[in-house]
């Protein structure tokens, strides 16, 4: 059996060491060990992790790898770049610190992203990157932008570029020959960069492909450059015999579709962002990154400016960072004050009293603590590291510090309450966006309540939950009026009576399975008996809500579904009533009891708007006309329903009530023309939303289809 290193597996799967180890721990994958206690990474382990990550063994992937081998190419990964201050070696430390000390992290902003090493450690989240240098921006776009690209096209371009032999006179040869690169390598660099530009302008490649090819060129240049890791100067009297060879970059095709990449001043951008975690890794000292990487910046921008001096630098005045100047502390305070994040994580080393003047940190520890403490509760985590040195500094005992600030906003705000059922189309992941867009009113009408994710998180004093699914509404009412301890006793009794699994007590090994394989084999017969007994009661006109909830918990994807006879008809699922589900139920039930709640089971056309308080906000999350889901099977939501709902909202508008409508304008190459015409007719506002929820489209086959989630408002 073939044996790998952890680096090889992480690189092949394009995940960080941290995330790899987390998967091993969370999914309880057993690894063999050598006699010295080291883990053995073999094919079996690799395939298990691949399955966990939902990376199928596609024929296309196999073909791409064959093509790479045919051309004799090699691959490069995000860590294959030299860069001052690169945190790749610290990503495990950073990710572990976040995982162990932060909760509810879905959106991560890396606002001084550099080469993207830290952002890559959070690839399983929605990631927003930013860097002042365009060369870093274009690299981040290559690695993190969700735009699709052709892997085959990338491989063929790289093969073509590597075959080029040229001594042509061009911008690179005329300005940089026999400095950082040989004259012929300069000719080749200039030829390739010009060709990439031409292909993009000619629409032969998209911007993602453009970014990947430029990044491949930058990586190749950096690998053979006649420098010591930066371009402040080049070494003299050395042989420039290394040949420029580009490697293939194949960024993940299954990135979060809401990832964004910016090329802005961090202090200007910060006010326009909101996130769960803001990661800060500003320059530490006087060494300007635009000075150290001017040549790569020049090639990335390809504006062909004049260069000057021995080091052949271009004008970089617009790229100077305040964080390398005396105003660094002032800039940092401004950034933190504007930050809209539940957690701020600052990476800053202990160089304030070490090294030479250029290496000394610009922001003191006292200032860091003072500024962050104004924002929230601060905790410091430390790890020894090996710092970059030009050889002029005697630097020992270096410590990378992580200053973790849980902001007062985060401390004040409890996490959003999640529904104890996984209702298809639930908007839990969109709640941070809704909170910013919803008005504050005394009464909140959740017209298509579903799992009640939105209504229960409303700040209104009164919440009206309405849904046409009577069983669903009655279950929510049961959670409201029944003592939470009694609910838990009833649930536990049913689980015990039917001998269903309890991994919160016994773990997975007790049932001879693991979290990846799931519990379906063990629970199947017991679940079917429970389902049969529940449906038998339904036929007699009895609804046992505790039984219904247990069925939901142990069913496929923790969902709720009935056939035309009113019988529960979902199959058994992989999970059980674990500690996470128990906590969801407790928090949801207790929150309902604290609110002034009304439960209605009406078709929306039956809701009398005139009877609502004048200070009522209406939120609508109907079945989407142009999508398919279990609640909209067989076209149960028709064009007539769509038209009636839109008339209903116009009437609400005429009565002076504010509303917000969730919907999609495009999905699977379809457009909701009825909705578009209605929006244009009444000039309602359309808010494009960032979304990251998957339970609504787990059966989607066309991953490339466009789906534009919007929130339409009359305010």
What is the topology?
Layout: E1 3-4, H1 6-13, H2 17-26, E2 41-42, H3 43-52, H4 59-70, H5 91-101, E3 107-110, H6 117-121, E4 126-130, H7 134-144, H8 151-162, H9 171-176, H10 183-201, H11 207-224, E5 260-262, H12 266-269, E6 275-280, H13 289-292, H14 294-301, H15 328-338, E7 341-349, H16 365-373, E8 376-384, E9 399-407, H17 408-412, H18 431-437, E10 443-446, H19 453-456, E11 462-466, H20 470-481, H21 484-497, H22 503-506, H23 520-539, H24 545-554, H25 579-594, E12 596-600, E13 616-620, H26 639-654, E14 658-667, E15 670-671, H27 673-682, E16 685-688, E17 707-713
Parallel strand pairs: 3-4, 3-6, 4-5, 6-7, 10-11, 10-13, 11-12, 13-14
Antiparallel strand pairs: 1-2, 7-9, 8-9, 14-15, 14-17, 16-17
Helix pairs in contact: 7-11, 7-14, 8-11, 10-11, 15-16, 21-24, 23-24, 26-27
In short:
It is built from 27 helices and 17 strands. With 715 residues, the protein is α/β, with parallel strands linked by helices.
What's the domain count? 3
How much helix, percentage-wise, in residues? Answer: 25-40%
How many H/I helices? 27
Mean pLDDT: 85
Q: How far is it from the N-terminal to the C-terminal residue, by CA?
A: 63 Å
Helix/strand structural class = alpha/beta
Strand content: 5-15%
| Radius of gyration, in angstroms, nearest whole number | 29 Å
| DSSP E strands, number | 17
- Judging from the principal axes of the Cα atoms, what is the shape? globular
Are there runs of 5+ residues with pLDDT below 50, and where? 54-60, 352-356, 386-395, 692-706
State the major sheet: 8 strands, mixed
């Amino acid at each position: 059996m073939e044996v790998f290193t952890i680096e090889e597996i992480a690189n092949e799967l394009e995940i960080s060491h941290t995330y790899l180890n987390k998967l091993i721990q969370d999914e309880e994958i057993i690894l063999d060990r050598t006699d010295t206690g080291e883990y053995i990474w073999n094919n079996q382990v690799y395939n298990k992790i691949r399955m966990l990550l939902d990376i199928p063994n596609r024929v296309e992937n196999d073909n791409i790898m064959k093509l790479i081998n045919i051309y004799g190419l090699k691959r490069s990964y995000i860590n294959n770049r030299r860069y001052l201050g690169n945190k790749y070696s610290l990503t495990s430390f950073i990710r572990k610190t976040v995982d162990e000390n932060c909760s509810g992290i879905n959106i991560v902003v890396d606002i001084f992203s550099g080469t993207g090493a830290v952002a890559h450690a959070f690839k399983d989240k929605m990631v927003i990157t930013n860097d002042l240098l365009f060369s870093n921006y274009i690299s981040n776009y290559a690695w993190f932008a969700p735009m699709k690209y052709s892997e085959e096209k990338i491989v063929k371009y790289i093969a073509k570029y590597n075959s080029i032999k040229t001594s042509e006179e061009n911008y690179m040869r005329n300005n940089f020959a026999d400095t950082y690169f040989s004259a012929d390598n300069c000719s080749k660099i200039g030829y390739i960069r010009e060709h990439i530009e031409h292909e993009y302008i000619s629409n032969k490649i998209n911007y993602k492909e453009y970014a990947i090819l430029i990044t491949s060129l930058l990586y190749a240049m950096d690998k053979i450059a006649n420098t010591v890791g930066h371009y402040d100067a080049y070494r003299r009297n050395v042989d420039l015999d290394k040949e420029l060879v580009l490697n293939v970059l194949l960024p993940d095709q299954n990135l979060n579709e809401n990832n964004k990449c910016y090329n802005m001043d961090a202090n200007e951008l910060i006010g326009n962002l909101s996130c769960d975690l803001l990661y800060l890794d500003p320059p530490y000292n006087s060494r300007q990154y635009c000075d150290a990487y001017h040549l790569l910046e020049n090639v990335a921008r390809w504006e062909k400016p004049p260069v000057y001096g021995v080091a052949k630098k271009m004008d970089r005045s617009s790229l100077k960072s305040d964080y390398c100047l005396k105003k660094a502390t002032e800039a940092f305070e401004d950034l933190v004050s504007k930050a809209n994040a539940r957690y701020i994580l600052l990476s800053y080393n202990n160089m304030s009293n070490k090294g030479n003047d250029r290496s000394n940190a610009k922001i003191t520890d006292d200032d860091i603590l003072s500024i962050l403490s104004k924002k929230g509760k601060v905790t410091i985590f430390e790890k020894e590291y090996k710092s970059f040195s030009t050889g002029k500094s005697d630097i020992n005992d270096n410590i990378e510090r992580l200053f973790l600030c849980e902001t007062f906003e985060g401390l004040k705000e409890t996490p959003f309450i999640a529904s104890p059922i996984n209702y298809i189309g639930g908007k839990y992941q969109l709640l941070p966006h809704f909170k910013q867009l919803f008005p504050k009113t005394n009464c909140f009408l959740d017209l298509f309540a579903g799992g009640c994710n939105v209504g229960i998180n409303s700040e209104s004093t009164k919440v009206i939950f309405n849904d046409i699914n009577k069983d669903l509404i009655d279950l929510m009412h049961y959670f409201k009026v029944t003592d939470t301890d009694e609910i838990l006793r009833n649930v536990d009794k049913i689980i015990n009576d039917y001998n269903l699994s309890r991994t919160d007590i016994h773990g997975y090994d007790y049932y001879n399975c693991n979290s990846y394989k799931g519990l379906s084999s063990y629970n199947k017969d017991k679940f079917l008996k429970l389902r049969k007994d529940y449906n038998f009661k339904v036929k007699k006109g009895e609804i046992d809500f505790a039984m219904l909830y247990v069925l939901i918990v142990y069913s496929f994807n923790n969902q709720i579904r009935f056939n035309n006879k009113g019988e529960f008809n979902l199959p058994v699922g992989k999970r059980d009533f674990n500690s996470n589900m128990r906590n969801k139920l407790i928090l949801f039930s207790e929150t309902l009891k604290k609110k002034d709640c009304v439960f209605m089971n009406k078709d929306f056309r039956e809701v009398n708007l005139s009877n609502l308080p004048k200070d009522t906000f209406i939120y609508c999350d109907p079945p989407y006309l142009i999508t398919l889901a279990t609640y909209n099977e067989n076209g149960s939501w028709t064009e007539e329903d769509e038209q009636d709902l839109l008339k209903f909202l116009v009437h609400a508008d005429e009565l002076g009530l504010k509303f917000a409508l969730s919907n999609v304008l495009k999905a699977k190459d379809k457009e909701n023309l009825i909705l578009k015409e209605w929006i244009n007719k009444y000039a309602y506002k359309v808010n494009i939303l960032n979304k990251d929820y998957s339970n609504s489209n787990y059966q989607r086959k066309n991953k490339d289809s466009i789906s534009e989630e919007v929130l339409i408002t009359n305010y």
